[in-house]
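Honest question from a wet-lab person: if I give you the sequences of every part of a complex, can you actually get the arrangement of the whole thing, not just the pieces? Trying it with mine:
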Amino acid sequence: MSAAADKPDRPHQHRPGSDHDSKLLRRLLTFAGPYRWAIAATILLLIIGLVLQVVGPEIFQRVLDGPVAEAARTRGTPAFDSESLTDQVVDFALLFLAVALVQSILAVVREWLMHRTGQGIVFEIRNRLFGHVLRLPVSWFDRHHVGWAVTRSTSDVDALSEMFTTGVSTIIYDLLKIVVLIGALIWIAPSLSLVALGVLPVMVYVSFRFRLVARRAYRATRESLSRLNAFLQERLTGLDVVRLFRRERSSKHRFDKLNTVYYDDNMVTVRHFSLFFPTVDTLANAIKIGTLVFGAWLITEGSITVGVLVQYWFYLSFVFDPIRELAERYNILQAAMAAAERIFGIFDTPTETQAMLAVATAGGAPAGPEAAVAAAAAAAADEAVQAVASVSTAPAVPAATAATAEAAATTAPSPLVEFEHVSFSYPVGPPVLHDLSFTINRGERVAVVGHTGAGKTTLVSLLCRFHETPQGTIRFDGRDIESIPHRDLRRRIAIVQQDVFLFSDTIAANIRMGNPDLPLERVREVARAVHADKFIERMEAGYESGLRERGSNLSSGQRQLVAFARALAADPELLVLDEATSSVDSETEHLIEDATKVLLQGRTSLIIAHRLSTVVAADRILVMHKGELREQGSHAELMAQGGLYSKLFKLHLAAAP
Amino acid sequence: MRRPKLFDPFARGLSYFPQVRTRWLKGVLCVLPDSALVVGLPMIVARVLNGVTATTDPMPLSEVWGWAALFFVLVLVKGAAKFGMRWYITGASREFERIYRQDLFDHMVTLTANDLAGIRTGDIMSRSVADLEAVRMLLGPSFMYVMQAAVIVPAALGVIFWVDPFVCLTMLVPFSGLALAVWISAGPTQHWSQEVQERVAELSVVAQENYSGIRVVKAFATEALSGDVFKQMGQAFLHANVRLATIRGMTWSSISAIKELALLVVLGVGGWRLVVGAISYGDILLFVELLAATFWPLIAIGWMLGLYTRAKSGAQRMDEIFALQPSVAESPQPTALPEVRGELTVRHLDFAYDTTAVLADISLHVPAGTSLGITGRTGSGKSTLVKLMARLIEPPPGTVFLDGHDVRDVALDDLRHAVGVVPQDTFLFSETIRENIAFAGEHIDHDAVETVAGIAQVDKDIAEFTDGYDEMLGERGVTLSGGQRQRTAIARTLAADTPVLILDDCLSAVDSVTEQAILGGLRETLRDRTAVIVSHRVAALALADQIIVLDEGRVAESGSHAELIAAGGLYATIHERQSIEQELETL
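Yes, you can. This is the full assembly:
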């Protein structure tokens, strides 16, 4: 399955500004729909803020060219009225204070609104993405690393979050600011603005150029850091192996190499930054000195007033920041686009249900148009159930109780599961199953035996529709499983896997997985039935004890028992048991064996068998070899037949002392 | 000079300082001209504007040009100084980080997995990256900003005071307001950004878990339920994020409000001083420029205050790792054992993890070239016993002996070359299969690798991989099955060619047919070696010369297979249970 893994982590070649981008952006904006008023308010606040920012220096100009200039002209003459001129200054100062206060308050509101909106949008995207991923076919998970999928749901969504919170509005704001301020520069002092207009484009160029190389360098540091981390993690996990083989020195040496590469990459970034800031600083200073010399000349010429020069100076210093930041904003946007592309790629991958609908509407369902209609209806129903998200609703078909199963067993055999000429192969590699036909009758216990790689696990995957459309037909309860919604099908089957997967939730929650409304009484009951009660009750919080990731605070035997309880709680029509071979001591093994009996009692079951005792006790044994069903029958029949089974069995015997 | 207490948590970091001193000092030398010119350049601007606007005897344009030329030269000097400052100081801090991390790693490889067991691997990773980064930022860039501030702020205030004391004194009001705002916001900002970090970690754990367990999620049809859990956590994340953004927004808004207040002082007080003729136009521009110049360093100091707590706890968390003492260390006077016969002796060994007794009074003797089988229930102390025998865990003095020497005294290199262990948890590295099998040293050639792979019965599996022995393992390559991993690990230990071999329940994931094949191959290899085999299966133990059964940390039974069967104890019970399964068939 790993051979089939594509390489989704390859560096993404993203070309910005293309038609493709605007499509992505439009699609992203559909998520912003519910927030359009908040966004409009934000933009309005940004514009008001911008106006107020232009007003401040204007007040300066009024003061300098008003009362101050008046004072300069009249000083030493009787017309000089220090008091009234000072009063005028104070009036302007109060006006300035008012402007500043309004500006600050609006800024707080704006920030809050921006983040509330951005986070809200991203919240929606994240939830939809997570829900979508969970509903993707299992084959998708075979092709993608879990880490990759997690990164999409976290880092990529964060990249969008950055764009939605600060990116978009700030880039609009910054652009607007640059335009307005340059307009103001030209407006108040057209000739003086020539100096700035000559140099500012250079600044823009330097800024973009820098971000380009800086981003490349930054990416290199991220890569070397992740290599360093991967090495570190592995050496730490395998620390005892390192010591066992005396590889400390070589490990240190290799760490040193990786650490130095990381350092070197960092130094490239340091160099870029060390060059960039002084360069921009120098350019800004060049504009200032030019402005000063030219301005001084204009003042002596009488073309502009001192107040205008000061006002101009203010606007000039305002314009440097957004230009320096513009490229950075652009990077955020670009990162967000790349992230959006990957996220939409996942959204565009059909879920199990969507795939089913597509097949049905295309009329391509193998069983003909009737089945297609049924499938479509079923899929729609499935979708509806999922949309309601209320898991408490009873399964479409009530789960069979032990009694009905037993009753079924005593009457004529009625098939629960039928495989008809089923073949299957993974996208690459040899066929895994070849022309497989068999049935499991109600109340029957069927064991599957075979050497590693015989296709035993694949058989289970197909039955639960973890993999889609094999050649041939699989029927459950008389219906083609392709016409049964995934959810309904799976609720009628419970699987106990060899590699028990528990969630980092309470033990009770893990047992309730298939049946969230199960009362605690019943949880205790099923735990008791499979001998899991003793160790659970010994735990600090009993059934409410939290499990660590993957249940690592339980022993493998204990995990197995919890999985049994989970399956029993689900009360399935068909129990699929992938028996464990992992090392448990004989005492625990004994408990597990006993629990298995409880579990299987009066239930239709399919067992991937490893223990001879289960095999021998089965009603029927399917002997698989290289993807084919070679023999089937009871233990005695197969032994009498003297075929593959008897050989396998003798091998087992020979292996014993 | 006594180091200020403030730096105490960074004692280790500062001990690396001599190695970066030259670079760092060069950077510090550049801070001075850069910072001085931050204050100096606006003075030239003011001088020119004052001159040009003077009512009496205005400055001639030729003089303006002179000042402009000076300004231009100083701008270039400043640019160069700024570059030097960043390049040397940030560079020194990166070098510092490199040395620090290497030291941390070098220390960690002296430890055993057990010594590090108290700290999760993910935690160690974040210490060696995020915590170290915080310390680097504090001792590097943020120190640079503080030094800048230390020059710029007093100089700027001094210049303003010199031009007009009234403006300067009024200016102190918003300045102290700034310090206050930065100081007040530091705590909540820290708190909520940590909260955001935790929430995001939580989200990725849920995603990770559900994606890894997708088959279970689907089998129990709990997609919607998992989605709800994820949604709730997302809600908490959203809440924390909005809170953080609000606090940040308020901080920034108050900072810019304070800046506006400072400008208000320039406008109001400066305007008044202009009216009364105490200052000139250029001085207004000087105030504005100096104001802009002092604000950033002041904010940087606030930033450093916030960082200080973070860096302090980071340094402490790293010190926790440095404080771990290797439980297995080279003896002060190691005994060299170049030639080992392989005689193992254990005498009255008691062992406890912390307070939990694991082994009690174990004594055994394995003559060179013979084999010992160990079995017992889970938790009976089997693994601990063999780990002690291989000195993977430190045994008490005078309890475990190799060729009559206490293993604690044997040179570690010699001991490791003598005793090969296949651990219970097989750990392989994500390198090629060849590199994994030849892990013990570069001297192991391809023939040797193929030979041991054959003995461990993994050669046929390897032949089926696309790249054979050069196939990469792990995320980017093939994922081996449990049995394949175990067999590869056996091959790896065999390749080390040690006179003593310890197999710690390493055939558990292998089916019994393959198990027999491996044991058959091993029989040959074990002929002239000492072997210790831990297993649950009687089949694997039967070939041992002597077998012990552990029960609750004690040797419950010992003897040969036949003797133990005859004795009718625990071993016989296990044997019986395992045979019943076969007997079932004959019915």
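Two things worth pointing out. The CA atoms of residues 128 and 347 of chain A lie 9 Å apart. Chain A touches chain B through 164 residues (CB under 8 Å).
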